[in-house]
Amino acid sequence: MSLNSELSAVYEGFQKNAPPAAVEVITTANSNFHASFNPASTIQVGDTIPDFHLSNASGQQVHSADLLAKGPLLISFYRGEWCPFCNLELRALQKNLDKFTAKGVTLVAISPELPNQSLSTTEKHDLKFSVLSDVGNKLARQLGIIFTQPDSLRPLFKAFGNDLKTRNGDDSFEVPVPATLLVDGRGVVRNLFVDTDYTKRLEPETALEWVDAL
Question: Which letter does DSSP use for residue 151 in this model?
Answer without folding.
Answer: G
